[in-house]
Amino acid sequence: MGVKGQRTLLPARRRAAAAAALISLLAAPAARAADEVPRSALGSSWSAPPVVLAGAALVALLFAQAFVRLRRRGRSDLAGWRRAALFAAGLALGVLPLVSPLDPIGEDYLLSAHMLQHVLISDLSPALLVLAVRGPLVFFLLPRPVLRTLAPLRPLRACLRALLNPWVTFWLWVAVIVGWHVPKLYDYALAHEHVHQLEHASFVLVGALAWTQLVDPARRGRPSRGGRIAFAIGMLALSHPVVEGLLFSGTPAYAPYARQPERLLGLSPLADQRLAAGVMFSEQLATVGSCIVVLLWPALRRLHALPQGVER
Predict the structure, then answer these.
(1) Beta strand spans in the chain (E)
(2) In angstroms, rounded to a whole number, what is the distance separating the alpha carbons of residues 197 and 25?
(3) Dihedral of alpha carbons 30, 31, 33, 37, sign
(4) Which among 43, 49, 151, 251 has most CB atoms closer than 10 A?
(5) Rounded to whole angstroms, how far apart are CA atoms 222 and 231?
(6) Are 162 and 168 in contact (CB under 8 A)?
(7) What is the distance between the alpha carbons of residues 88 and 74, in angstroms, rounded to a whole number?
(8) pLDDT class for 8, splitting at 50, 70, 90?
(9) How far is CA 32 from CA 3, 23, 55, 94, 192, in A?
(10) 164 CB burial (10 A radius; 0-12, 13-18, 19+)
């Protein structure tokens, strides 16, 4: 083989080697942050994941500077302490499930605990955080120097526009929430720590996007009130197959929990699975269902007042 042929073959071999390395990285179980936590040590198994703590600190810092800037302008009515309490509650419900004993219990022992973790970080926490920053407060979240740096970046603006398109947000939410609960993907994420972290990050992302559509914190008026109601109903409807599959299945859906010999709270794999379905359904009904009622409330009040108006 000539020199030219060797030069052509070398990059091809390098690409093949890189692809093989990537496949092996994805196929092999990543080193877990810790081995399975013994049942006797679960109560004290708190952790401090650097990515989680750094993300929480950044979010808290952005809210704090926005809160202070608005209050310094004399607009404490737009940045009241109730908003701060709401934000703190949302942040706590996003961080505690990932650092508390709920994390090893959900990973190693109970599907219902893992489901509770998922609905907290993907639904309840984002809902409270978005509610806390609604109105003018949302426009102060980015400091001026950061805003000046990011605003001219057209690719970033285009990406944000695409993600905040209601149709894109909705189907991305469905793909993430339903997709990660497919048994093969769920089991794979449990066995690979880096994939599991990606799963959690995607839950947080789609939760924030979905509740941005439902709450409309910037008061853009898009989607309309009717569109937001339809969005919320769609969330309930298209997450129902996950709930139904877990509730009515006659066999355990996820192998790691079925193989676990130690049964916390005496729950069998099927009882644990049905409890997980109940957790998901109850939490979504409480959050998304409440959102639908709030959005419908003006129309309900008008309907209630209609007979009096007719009599007059």
Answers:
(1) none
(2) 15
(3) positive
(4) 49
(5) 12
(6) yes
(7) 22
(8) very low
(9) 46, 18, 20, 21, 7
(10) middle
CA dist 279 and 115 (Å) reads 7
Give residues with Cβ within 8 angstroms of 184, minimum separation 6: none
Answer for the pair 38, 109: CB distance below 8 angstroms, yes or no: no
Enter the pTM of the model. Answer: 0.81
User: In this structure, what token pair is assigned to residue 186?
Assistant: 């769920």
Q: Which of 276, 233, 280 is nearest to 122 (CA)?
A: 280
Place of tokens 């942050």: 33
Comparing CA positions, the residue from 197, 42, 208 lying closest to residue 122 is 208
pLDDT band at 199 (very low <50, low <70, confident <90, very high): very high
Cβ contacts of 182 within 8 Å, gap of 6 or more = none
DSSP string, 255-266: HHHHH--S-GGG
* Section 283-307 average pLDDT: 84
The upper half-sphere exposure of residue 62, i.e. CA atoms within 13 Å in the direction of its Cβ, equals: 21
If you average pLDDT over every residue of the chain, what do you get?
84
Whether the CA torsion 28, 109, 54, 70 is positive or negative: it is: positive
Rounded to a whole number, what is the largest CA-CA distance in the chain? 99
Tokens coding 166: 């209601």
Q: Mapping DSSP to helix (H, G, I), strand (E, B) and coil, where does residue 178 land?
A: helix
**Cα angle vertex 172, ends 170, 176, to 5°?**
120
C-alpha–C-alpha distance, residues 140 and 134, integer Å: 11
Six token digits for residue 212: 């941005």
Helix, strand, or coil (residue 52): helix
